[in-house]
Amino acid sequence: MRQPFLTPVLAAAVAVIAAPLVAAPAKLSKELTAAVAAPTRGETNKLRDKYRHPAETLAFFGLKPTQTVVEIWPGGGWYTEILAPFLKDKGQLIVVSPSGRASDAIGKFLDADAATYGKVARANFPVLLGGSGVAPGTADAVVTFRNVHNWRMGAFKEDNSDYSVEAFREIFAMLKPGGVLGIEDHRLPETQDAERERQSGYMKVSTIRKLAEEAGFRYVGSSEVNANPKDTKDYPKGVWTLPPRLAEGDKDREKYLAIGESDRMTLKFVKPLK
């Protein structure tokens, strides 16, 4: 079949349409700036701001202090320290973890400072691992940071089977129409074997887009605020070789500290109104 001829102008237009939508830096609100500067944040966590750019990331997701926001798998509470004061007065933060030890850990973190975290609600995710989930159609926004690779790797599941499809469907259900899903995760080059997603902790942008879009989400765009070109993504112990984990211990420690935290995608999706 004869291929259509594209003029240089038309070819350029097609390339623009096919390219990822990279957003300009979002304006930081006074509420978000204040939350990042909250005195209740741990000093060690603040040192990670230069890698994680929390104000710019949350501004890109478009979070507002009046919203109901679900934070999926908060871990030790790094982003919870920012989201809780941001939403405390006018909004609602719900932190969701796998039932069991992970849920108990964030619970102890919240209970240690009731003045700051007493209003934060708790639930479990995904429900296929047990516990109670977030009620359907109740969240304005869902955010998750460096977690999709865990679902791909079957974390907390006895047989370690991939449950990322089910996870995205559950997220879609908990959001209101028009609600936003914000994702940050370690970025695997598109040219590499997808099987590395099961071992390295890195994920392809195309994989996450496919998971989200097949669940019903519409892709809005991406931000390069968390990009790190120094990250070579070829470490024997995967992304955990880099800080803050430093899986190699003292071996090549200074080398990995100089690289910094991983190269990360920052993606925004929306649940269609209809």
Account of the protein in words:
The structure is a single chain. The model is unreliable at 1-19 (pLDDT under 50). The protein has twelve helices and seven strands. The N and C termini lie far apart (38 Å). Helix 10 crosses helix 11 (205-215). It has helices spanning 8-18, 30-36, 43-46, 49-52, 54-61, 80-87, 101-111, 114-117, 148-152, 164-174, 205-215, 253-259, and strands at 68-72, 92-97, 121-124, 139-145, 175-186, 218-223, 264-270. It has 274 residues and is α/β, with parallel strands linked by helices. Helix 6 links the parallel strand 1 and strand 2 (92-97).
For the structure shown, list the relevant keywords.
274 residues; alpha/beta
Quick structural overview:
The protein is an alpha/beta fold. The protein is built from 12 helices and 7 strands.
